[in-house]
Structures are given as structure tokens and as C-alpha cells.
Amino acid sequence: MKNKKWVIVIVIVFIVGAGIVFLYYREPTPTTFLNIEEMTEVLIKQQDITAPITILDVLELEKSYYIVPFKTDDEQRWMSHWIFERSGWKLVGYGNKQSSLQLLQLHHNDPKSYYFVWHFPPQEEVTQMNIYFIQDRNYYISGDNQFYIPRIQLHMNIDLTDSLYGVQKIPENWLTIMAAITPIEADRFLMPMIESFPSHNFAWQTLDEHNQEAHLETGESTFTHWLESVDIHMTHVIYDDYLEKP
Amino acid sequence: MNIVFLASTIFCLGAILYIGLKLAKKQPVPKNYLKLFISILLGVFSFTIEFPFRDTAVKIAILPLGVWILFMLLRKKEGAWERYRKFAWLGFFSNYLFLVSSFLVTPIHQWIYPPEHLLTYMRANDEIEVEAIHPSATQPIQLIENLQQSLKEFESETFNAEEFYYDAYFDETLTNIERFPYVMVGQLPKLGSGIKASIYVEQDGKGLLVSTTKTQYYFRSEHSILREGNDEE
Predict the structure, then answer these.
(1) Could you report the predicted ipTM of this complex, rounded to two decimals?
(2) pTM value?
(3) E strands, A45-144, where?
(4) Which of A29, A66, B128, B178 is the most buried (most CB within 10 A)?
(5) Is the pLDDT of residue A134 over 60?
(6) What's the sign of the alpha-carbon dihedral B127, A133, A232, A139?
(7) Pairing relation of β-strands B182-185 and B129-132?
(8) d(Cα B34, Cα B21) in Å, to the nearest integer?
(9) Chain B neighbours among A 171-230 (CB < 8 Å)?
(10) 3-state secondary structure of A203
């Protein structure tokens, strides 16, 4: 009799425990994204943003991640990042980083969730941008082993004539290539020197309508204020001199 | 999956189990197999030094920490230390068994999967493709139909990484041209080798640069494995 009681108690504890774990770890289903008024209300409460603001667009990266470009009356260009959490939609970051291309990674360890994000101020010359996937040519020798690292230079073209903001997911074939070249990066223990050779990186170049290098005209202050940590990777500007054009 | 490594691990575990059971037979009844097993596991725990030797990380167990811990725990109990001592030492010496086997794994692996043999790193399959990685690559490009046959013609050759590198900058006919403007994707290594390699394909399709985590090999053939165009046309 006593034993039966115990069994029942254990089963109940187990079910309740499993229920709590399930509710806690269940991915919340995102509700409909905020409307313009709701977004504006949150944004103008932030210290660096002065009302009035104009929301330019609402960009969905994933069901639970939105990016909203907007501008203030002084013609500053902004980007705001929104995440759906258990409690609802939340502003996780905003900035007027108008002189850079940001590379966002939504999920740790998942390169598929790489997104390029930009929002430039009005341009006179610049009408397009190339985003590059680069691996620097290199070589190194360690005892009997030698390595030659071929140059990788791939690009995708982004048209900036219609809008100066945007989000672009990393191309599929870049991911395929990244996966194909990774074995060489392993075994740090045996070859600690490998670490000093950066493998691939992402770069960008702005161009005019004649496909000539053109400099981006940017605003004065640029910053991004993150309210929560978001994975941002470095990208750098690349100039004609550093591009290989056969 | 590296089957040589797997086989040697199974062999070592089997050997430890066998010795453990032999020792257990001499134990007075009643035997508590769980405690004997825990003693072996505890014995494995040790202070080790690790250093690279001929492309492998060698781990040498020096201080038998687990054995000491067991001694501390059991010294007050009458006869307990004597009973479990052997099993703790068995655990400690199993470190050396794994060390010796790790020395054997590499030569056996190289015997079954010769490193200077292209087919160790790739076999033709339906998913295999080439991707252009540089503007000097010809596009569109694809692999020839009878790939597996052509792969057999590739022979290992010595190469000079430094030369490959500087040619790209100082040889006027090669400036702005990448010697290996393609990468192989979706290839599988020889079954059971567990080797991960990235394979770059030379401009003319007759050379392959294979990078493993430890070194690089260069293979050449008389015939190209590339052809222009794609099947959709």
C-alpha cells in the first residue's frame, strides 16, 4: 500500500516537472508584429531618438526577428531590431550606423542565419554595392607540412537606387563553400600558428552607376545601441586595389 | 567515422574488461562488481601531460590521482584498500594501453587509407559538385561524367606552397588569377576513413589540392575533370 502511494507521488511530480520544462522551453509562437503607432511609441522613448520619426519599412528576417528602418526629422537614418520573446515584441537594438554594413547572426553556431543589414543616408553618386566573401591567399610551412591557401573572392550585387536600406541573407553557395573549406581550420593544438591566419571575411564596396568605385557619403555620428546582446560580425570596406580582376 | 580508431578503442576496452574480470575472479565472495568498476574508472583519473609528436597529440599519464583518492577514501577501512587497489591501478595503466594503441592507429590507418592516394579523400557520388570561388574561374563549370574513372589517374606530386603563393603576385601571366579557383563540395571520403578534407581544383582541372587538418597533398593527372557549361542548357 505504502509503495503504491510513492509510485503515484513520483508519477505526479514527474508529470508536473515535465509540464514546467515543456512550457518553459517551448518556442513561443510570435504574435503579429507591432503596428506603426506601437513601434513609434517604443522608439521615441529611447534617449538618443528625437521625435518625430518616420518609419520607412518593416523587414521580416525570421518570424521572431524584425528590422525596422526609420528616419528622424534631421535626416538621420536609423535601424531598429526587434525580437519576439515570451512577453511579446521587444526592441533589442537601434542605431544610426550609416557608414557600415552590419553582419548579423541570429542563431549561435548557425551560419545559415547570417544577414547583411544596412541603411545609408541619401547618396549622390552611389547607386549600388557589392558584398564580398573573401579568403586571403596565404601559405605557411611547418616542418614537412606545407599549406597553400587559395584566394576566394565572390560577390553579390545590391541595387541601391530604390532604397538605401535593406537586409540580405547570405547566399546559399557561400555557405556551401564555407563548409567545404573548414577542415583546414581545425587542429589548433598541433598547429597553434594557424590561428594567426584569418580564414574568410566579409567586405563591401560601394559603386556608382558606371560600376566605378564611389565613396559613401555618411552622416556624422554613427553608433548602435544594443539593449540586448546580438551577434554582430565584422565587415570591412574593400577598395579596388585589393580586388583581383582578371 | 574512423573505423581504425573505433576498432582500437573497442579492443582496448575489451582488454581492460578481460583483465578486470580475471582479477575479479580472485576476489573473495561476495563480489560487488559495481564497486570494482568504479575503482577502475577512478583509477583512470590522472595528471597527464600532453604534447604534439609526429602530428598526433600524445597524452602521458604521470600522477595516479584516482589511485591516491581511492587510497585516501579506503585506508581507514580494514582490508578495503587491498581489495580495490588492483582495480584502481588497472584503471591507471589503461591510460598507457590507450597511448600505445594511439601509436598503432596512425600506421594502420595509413596502411588502409594511404595518405598519398587521392581516393582516400574522395569517391564519386551523386552530390559531388564544383563551385567557382574566384573571378578567374570559368563559369558555368561542372564535373565530367565519368568522374570515378578519372580520379584513379591522379598521382601525388610534390609542390611548393611558397611558389604557388608568390606566382600569383610576381608571375605576370598569373596576376589576378587564382591557381585553384574551384572548390569541391559534397564529396565523401573513402568509407570508414573518418578523414575530413577540403579539395581545391586547379584552373586546368588536372590538379587537386587536398587539405586535411594536418597537411596538404597535391595531385596531378593527364586529364581534366572539369567541363564547361551546365546540364540545364
Answers:
(1) 0.80
(2) 0.81
(3) 53-55, 59-62, 65-72, 77-85, 88-95, 102-105, 114-119, 128-135, 138-142
(4) B178
(5) yes
(6) positive
(7) antiparallel
(8) 12
(9) 173, 176-177, 179-184, 186-187, 189-191
(10) strand
